[in-house]
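Recap slide: tRNA-dihydrouridine(16/17) synthase [NAD(P)(+)], sequence and predicted structure.
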Amino acid sequence: RLVLAPMVGASELPFRLLSRKYGADLCYTPMIYSARFVEDDAYRQAELRTAPGDAPLVAHFCGNCPATLLKAARLAEPHVCAVDLNLGCPQRVAHSGNFGSYLCATAEGRATVLSIVRTLSSHLRVPVFCKIRLLDELDETLSFVRQLRDAGCALLAVHGRYRGSATRRRDGPAHLEQVAAVVAEVKRAAGEQMPVLSNGNVRSAADLLSALAATGADGVMSAEGALDDPAIF
């Protein structure tokens, strides 16, 4: 239920161990470039540093090629409990690299995402997670969530903000009511349900509990709140 978010320059091994000491149930690595992870041994060693006590751990990859992501995931698989697909990064590098939230901006891009999820879920021994942002319309988001679940996504983290632009990525609080709508949509589905994590509006332990209550999510993912105070968990 208490999850440390993937953060470049923050959720590396030392901070993960500190967060676990204070109660984090699950931690993500920082964003890992899948192609470089496959090709560069030094990068691979640096980006997937782990140690006894650093579990359960999720490897958080970005990319847009199913075959490359599968190669990267297979290399990470022995060291992690799950592989996560970055579908939420709103920064310029994601725009230029066609990954993260920009890969979800069009129907064609979302079709690529679903192909990636199907490929990974069909060929890995560990589950496949996804981390998304809100699409422009709630109905679009709900439809995409259903498609991700049907493609094999085993757990979904929802950052309750829109992508925005590369220079303006935040406009007020996260829309936790839309995260609640995602949770309700998933719970309506028949068969095995996909757990949903809420991400956004967590600056304190009180905010964390409030987000759980407001969304009905299975857990809460904290980024900046945990950086300010790892004991938030």
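The chain has one domain: 2-232.
The longest strand covers residues 153-162.
(End of recap.)
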